[in-house]
Structure formats: C-alpha cells, structure tokens
Design goal:
Structural class: mainly beta
Bound molecules: (dicuprio-$l^{3}-sulfanyl)-sulfanyl-copper, dinuclear copper ion, calcium ion
CATH architecture of the largest domain: 7 Propeller
Number of helices: 5
CATH class of the largest domain: Mainly Beta
CATH superfamily of the largest domain: YVTN repeat-like/Quinoprotein amine dehydrogenase
Distance between the termini: 46 Å
Strand order of the largest sheet: 8-9-10-11-15
Strand content: 35-45%
Number of strands: 39
Largest sheet: 5 strands, mixed
Amino acid sequence: MNEKPTAAAPEGLGRRRFLNSAAVAGLAGVGLAACSEDKPAAAGAAGTSAAPAGASSSSGHLKPGELDTYYGLWSGGHTGDMRVLGLPSGREITRIPCFVPDALVGWGITNESKAIMGTKPNGDLRYTVGDTHHVHASYKDGNYDGRYAWINDKINSRIARIRLDYFTCDKITELPNVQGFHGIFPDKRDPVDPAINYTTRVFCGAEFHVPLPNDGKAADKTDAYRTMFSCVDAETMDVRWQVLIDGNCDLTATSYDGKLAATNQYNVEGGVKFADMMAAERDACLFFHVARIEEAVKAGKFKTYGGSKVPVVDGTRKANEDPKTALTAYISVPKNPHGVNASPDGKYFICAGKLSPTATVIELTKVLDWFDGKLDKVDKAIVAEVELGLGPLHTAFDGRGNAYTTLFLDSQVVKWNVADAIKFHGGDKTAKYVVDRIDVHFQPGHINASQSETTKADGKYLCVGCKFSKDRFLPAGPLHPENEQLIDISGDKMVLMADHPVRGEPHDFIIFKRELLRPKMVYTLDEFPNAVKDPKDSGVFRKGKKVEVRMTSLAPAFSLTEFTLKRGDEVTLTLTNLDKIQDLTHGLAIPKYNINFIVNPQETKSVSFIADQPGVFWLYCTHFCHALHLEMRSRMIVEA
Ligand code: RUQ
Ligand code: CUA
Ligand code: CA
C-alpha cells in the first residue's frame, strides 16, 4: 500500500487499490494502518485525468472513463438541493443538500448540519421543505472563481451558500420582511473600489408583496403591501440592506462594473388577485444604483421593519423621481416579463416579455446616464424591443453577439443577434435579427449556455430546461420527469444533442469549464474542532446524564466495538473518519433511533439523541467501504 500514485494510476484510483489490497490484508488479520500512507489527494477530479477534451460524439456521449469538460450546477427545485452534473454527458455526479434533510449524508440529522439549517428551541429543524430555483456562483474579473455558489429557497425565503471546494452547504440565511424570494445574483465586482474585482454581495429579489409588518392586522390594506430587494454579504451571509419597492421582484441580474443590479417585475399593478396582475400592458425592469444605496445606508437614511435590524431604504417610485438622488429606476417593459439577463459584453440587460412576444434590450450606460442627469427619460435606455415568438422567458449568450431565448408557448429556442435587433429597432427593417430556431420538447423555461453570463462565454453548449417531457421517456407513472435538452451551439445552426430526464423540478443552472474548480477530495482533521484525532481518545465520557461518546472509523472497524449507556442519557456521539484515502467514506446508522449519516475521509460529524429505548442496538456502517464492510459494526447497549 505504499506505492505512490503515478501518471498512469492517478490518485483517483486510490480507493480501488485500497479495496484490492486491503481486503486481502483485512482477511489475513493484518492491520490496516499502513493504508494511511496513501497520500490524500489534494486537487481532485477536475482536469487531472488524461480524458480527452471533448465529447466523443455529437450526442454528448462519453466513452467509459472519459471525464466531462464542463460542470453544471443545477437547482433541484422542491427537492431543496443543488445538483452537480457533468457536461456534455449530462451525468448527475452528486446532489448537495441544503434546505431539506438528506438521509445519505445525514443533512438535518447531524448537529453540524442542523446548526446550518436552523432549529427551533426544542432542537427540531425549523423547516424541512424548500424550493430551489436559481443557482449562481461567485465571480472574479468577470468569470467564476470557484469559491462559492448560492441558491435560493422560495418557500421560506432563505439563501444557502455552497463551498465549491468541498461541495457542501456552509451557511443559510433567512431574509427578513419578505416572501417568495426568487431571483438571485452575485455582484461581479465592487461599484466603487476597483481593487475589489470579485463578488462581495449577493442580491436577492422577493416576489410576493406582504403587509409590513406582517402581523395579521393589515391583511385588508392591499395597497400597503410591499416587497423588498435584499443585499446579502457574500462572506458573512448577513443581510446588509434591503430596498422597499413598488411591484414585485422576479429574476435578478448584475452589471459587470458592479454599479447596477436589476430585477424584472411582472406585477407593477400590485395585484393580489390573478387577473389584477395582468391588467397593465407594461410592467418594469427595476434598476438599483448600488453605490447610492450603500451611501444612503451609511448616512442613516433608512428604516427598520418588524423585529429585524436590517436597514431598509426607500426605493419606491414616488421617492425616486429625481435622477440625481434616485436609488432606483423603473424602466417600462411589456407585459409580465420573465427573466433578466446580462450580456457577456457587459453592455445590455435583456428582459423577455412572457405575455408579450418580445424581448427588451436595455443599454446599461444609458441607465447610468439617467442616474447622472444626462438622459431625460430612463425609458430611453431601451435600445431594442423586438418580436421573438410566443412566451419568451429566459435568455443565454454565446459570446459572439447572439442571444438564445426560450419560447415557452412555441416550444422553441430562438437564436437572435443583439446588434441586428438594435439596428432593426432603430429603423433598419432589413436587419435580420432572428438567426435560427429549434424545436424543443416541450415548453422550455430556463436556458443557459456554457460560460454564458461571464466575460468568457464560449458558445459551445446550450442547455434547455423543458418543463414537460410528455412522451420522450419510458412511462413511469403519473409524475413525468422534466426534459433537460442539450444543444450544440458552436455552429450557425443549433443542433439538438440529447434528452435527459430529471426528477422535478430543476429551474435554473449554470455551466462552466471544469478548470475553474479545484475541489478537495479529502478533509483535514483540523477543520473540525470536535475531531477525535486518535482512536485512543475514543470512549464514553459521562457527566451525570450528559454523555459523550467519541469514536473513530478506520476501515473496516469503528474504534469502539461496543459501549454502554443508561436509559434517559442525553447522548452526543461524535465520529471522526481517520481514513485518509480518497473515496473511503463510512456511514453510521443507529437502528430505532432514526439516525444515519456518513463521514468522508478525515471528516467529523456528531449527532445528539436521548437514549430512551433500552436494548441492544447494532450501529453499522451504511456506506460500502471495504470487503469487511458488513462486519463494520458497534454494539450500543442501553441499560433499562
Ligand atoms: S423562474 S422558468 Cu423560478 Cu427561474 Cu423562470
Ligand atoms: Cu465502513 Cu462500510
Ligand atoms: Ca403585469
């Protein structure tokens, strides 16, 4: 077990070698300590293998052993998690639980995950449902920097942060004063300090307007309902400030210079009934002047609402009519728009019309001109409003000047050229801005292209999230999967490459080059203050009724073969996995105590429970780790 990884046998093979030789060693009764000489892999899967840099065929099908060239981060929808895909194959590699418990990793079971998810005073989880829609990652110099991704929970207005080194959720923040938190986008740099060329804020738009405070006393006063746009600190995950607005927020976009954020609005009417929300012919794309908002907060020009201490500035139309002091600008766009996306050249935001067959192109320098008093009407920042087809929703980009918009009602993707659309809108009716159309199956919502909303948009792959799959897959009962379709956009014509069923229901996703991530494949013990660093530190430590059980795992054994508790003990069990080899994960289940979780190499987790059921309980390893995996058990005795 002391051979060093070679180029021909990359570190990723550590576990296979381990399994082969450790099985023999284990069966022969030889100790396994030598295995820890196997070097933990530092930089992991991305880019270390000899896999060719492309799909083997136009279907996106990769040969066995070939690695994908792109990562995809997908929202899981109401499974409340984030999914990690490899592209172009479309293979799902893992799911990262954040808002909803997960029985594999023990998310919502372990003390560490419960602390992130949030608990009630009795220790139970505060929420066990979630509805994730939008995933976005942190930026540096206009491209993803591999630090973080963020994802929203629409149901309980929470934002989760995923560390992209370990692919785990490390913080969750609940936004105050709002409901229906939907759009999310990190800033791409600081609006004033040029040295800060990376993400420090995440903007969050909330859809539903509610009475403020929402205490059940003012449900009838619907014209006093408001929603807010929130700014969350990327590092601390505290809510820095909020903006009170008219209308609602739907999706969110940010400019490459850090100066502007925007949200599209489908309900400027402020309707609380279905028909009221579609009354107006035009709604809005609402812009936020980030630097001015932060100045206003600094100057104390804010209020607070309910029990929250978060400063709230006034971004309503009435309070922001003077461009020289305005914090916000409402640009009129038709009708119930959905989606606002930033073009990779940094020039435009594009709103899709949904109930209007158009897309509206807004030039950002002109929006800034309005704020500077150099443009008399902010609506003059609209440089194109062109027909695309029925039900336009979301837009992606190829970095060659083309936009790709989903047409929900037409079940199509339309490829159109932004510069030609602007020419056409400007009066040149010979400008043919529609380049291509392709049928998709069926009713597409989200769309994204490889590297789309970065300065490195590369125009290779386009993925379309089709909301209905009808007859595209084997029938499997009334719940149909959705259909994620992959399209090759490297040529003039779009080419459909593959259908992929996914369990409901992903919304948005991002696709980026695998080189941008350097995941760590093994933890370090020091990351866990409660680690049990040596099997000799294992044992049962009692202080009255409070009992700590500390143990380690090292294939194929737990450090405690048995331990004894008394009925009624308040137990905290801490488990550190001392195995150092990549992919050597153990699980720990406690029958009848509703406990299961895994520990990855060098990881520590803990669970707390009351030993209220007397008897003998076989704790066992739930994650296949070794030829003697079945034998990997510990006997928990709870005395009556
Ligand atoms: S929304 S189908 Cu939740 Cu992203 Cu547009
Ligand atoms: Cu340890 Cu299976
Ligand atoms: Ca409307």
